[in-house]
Protein 1
Amino acid sequence: MCSEDARRAVPRTDVVLADPRLQAAQRTLGRSFVLELVRQAQERSRSGEISPESIVDAAVAALPATVSSMRKVVNATGILVHTNLGRAPLSRAAVDALVAAAGTTDVELDLATGQRGVRGRGAVDALAAAVPDVGGVHVVNNCAAALALIATALAQGRDILISRGELVEIGDGFRIPELLASTGARLVEVGTTNRTRLSDYEAALGPETALILKVHPSNFAVRGFSEEASIADLATLGPPVVVDIGSGLLSPHPVLVDEPDALSTLRAGASLVAASGDKLLGGPQCGLLLGDAELVERLRRHPLARALRVDKLTLAALEATVRGPHPPVRAMLEAKLADLQARAEKVVTALADVTEAEAEVVASEAAVGGGGAPEVVLPSVAVAVPLRFVEPLRAGDPPVVTRTERGRCLLDLRTVEPDDDEALVKAVRRVGKD
Ligand SMILES: *Cc1c(COP(=O)(O)O)cnc(C)c1O
């Protein structure tokens, strides 16, 4: 059929939309969304790319599973907490909790009395139980928000003492000193890049000192001729000591010996701890504020707190993360090498007939990533395939994001959830067969 005829034969939009599959899609994806896909298919027919008879099939083929464009991705990078991949994947318990909270929920209502309740009390109580002796708990949007609230509420127009070794850039060009200064607090830098002593803080102390801030160097390490003042010593100086621990470990973890945790930091004498919820805690994006009851209450009641308030979904997922079974990040951290090896061998066996893939089990090194434990190397196991697999795997469904190393494409199993091993095999198989 010539294209002139093709244009004439393009069926009307309402006729196309009446197809039962597109009717069903309109209920789940919305009419305008489906309409746009139909228009695109009609356009392809007009240009002669497809026949008028295939318009419905083409529109159906283009239907996504959900209206949101954000997709599930398999993280085979070996970076446990990958900021570009949404940091911590949530536990099943956390997913269930946020689905339950998605509708109308009692986030801020006491069902027993019918009165307004503390917003997200369950999450706050769970954190308090996980960090014994903590005076107060508050949750904001992320760790950066926690720092902004602290600086605004406790140090606006006053001084924050901070070591020159702790002026950290957290990523994407965002720097903690600039964030603090943007609140109207004055930063007073003390010590040097590699050595800051208690006496440096002491010398800078004055009537304008609102607080002493320690920031964990979570994405770099200073080694060699270095020294820092301990929290216990800083706590003797008078002003509140606030510690940004970054990664959100609530208590010490044996694999991460140098990573600070909230419990130990508070026990050492810190007045307040700020941390992220979606790094090593393994929960949703949020910022945890833990510490002195009176200080936390001041933060909670500050006008800015309202602008940093977390969503009910976050609160539900956070509570489930803290109370429920260990989240995936924890499982990845603690996965045994022998188990990773067995999974890798199984994947390679399942790919034995895909000769193109040349799949092979190789030793690998995984990392925490995402601003945590910068020096920790996690021995791991990967499946290696040729470099040309990188892009098609990333473009696949589900997309698999890999790591390029030694001229090969590595699929590191430490960051792949075991339930996704089969998806991994299928993805490689599809690319290998192309
Ligand atoms: C990651 C990190 C931050 C920023 O945390 P967000 O939750 O992403 O805002 C701040 N401080 C430290 C030390 C960090 O590691």
Protein 2
Amino acid sequence: MKFTSTRNASLSVSAAQAIVQGISAEGGLFVPESFPQLSLDEIVKFASGSYADCAARVMGLYLTDFSAEELQRMAHDAYASFSSADVVPLVQLNDGEAVLELFRGPTLAFKDVALQMLPRLMSASIQKTGAKHKVLILVATSGDTGKAALEGFRDVPGTAILVFFPLDGVSDMQKLQMLTQRGDNVAVCAVKGNFDDAQTGVKRLFADDGVREMLAQTGYQLSSANSINWGRLVPQIAYYFWAYAKLVQGGGVKAGDPVDFVVPTGNFGDILAGYYAKRMGLPVRRLVCASNDNKVLSDFFATGVYDRRREFYKTESPSMDILISSNLERLLFEMSGRDAAKVAQWMQDLTSQGYYDVGAEVLKALGTDFAAGWCTGDEAKQALNGVFDRFGYVMDTHTAVAQCVTEKLHKDGAPAIVLSTASPFKFPQSVLSAIRPGEEHKDAFEAANALAKVQAAACGKEAKDCLPAQIAELSVLPVRHDAVCEKDNMEQALFDAVKRWN
Ligand SMILES: *Cc1c(COP(=O)(O)O)cnc(C)c1O
């Protein structure tokens, strides 16, 4: 399998090359040249094997320059640290509703599913391509990516990682998780701005020839762990197959009948992986894109106009507070009939005028695979509380947005699988305010302990043992990172980090 670029369809590179490079030279994103197929028979059988085997098989269809044994070893290593034997357990709430828990990894966010794999894929790709420089991973994070990437790349030979996060745009727990990060090849810098400022700054660093040259002299080449990297996206395709197989196994759907997936969406990586799964033969009726108040995507699916010229809201689902969803570019490439020139023009329009319009034909095509909806923070909390009331199940604030959109849109037909993207313990104050209205907890740890008490019945242990260890240790770990930079001066933070590492 070869990979081409969304902005230059004559390009053709190997998977390893795409992973090392992260982004194509002209600014496009790497996409597979075709979609490999899986039979229903094989899909259903995934449920009786291990998740790692399922992941290795699905990834292997794209990563044809990796051997099956290599991928199996990597997948088993990557997912051994997850707290569930199923890695990504499917919880059936009732006949028509299920939740796919993607947050059982080391940083309690769904991003671990990809970011425990990516460093292994990256290391192997560096060897396969004979890259002579170390790879320096630059990350802009709206909260969860940063920690998951730091944890994934920590002390991985041949790599270093620098994470930028918006100073006031992440939760207390998310910030502490990053500032206490261990490892000799890591750096973290708070940016005075929002997530889009941080992401734009990172893109600028990637595009700056001077920066590249200076890094090459010190022995580094840049790459990305954001979901624009193919190696980040490909591990995510697997859990759609797994969820479906498990639902069939549990009797929630008949083999071959379609399901809907409802995805709390930010950068469009998670839901795009679902679209790829559908293209590979998974029986999916619709992929439902769920947005919070920053509903640029749900507006786009309604109108065909992607318009970032709008107010940016800080919400209680901060990992979805995004106005520029990078991975949508990959979907547009498919929906335009792989018209790289058109995609490049839309992206140019977005940069120069703040919006683009894909027109009626593409809009219609989008509607056959996708639906979209959005919720206010209050509506999401009501949904969260409703699920707790009905099933005793506690979800986090991002998952609650998807739950809320499910309740708004999903009135008929196919069973709905809600993708759960974070542990409720990462956002304890917000979660508690939903299920215990009136109780107020200013301190995140106090709230986490109170939440552990609420969960005790469901987790079947004493309250203190229901608090995830990754949260408990944050209150005692020393802060190791204190850099803050202006959004126009992220270059300096990069040079400072390199100086420290060398
Ligand atoms: C990153 C993230 C999302 C959004 O996922 P995308 O792939 O960027 O669409 C949703 N919820 C949580 C908790 C996340 O960390």
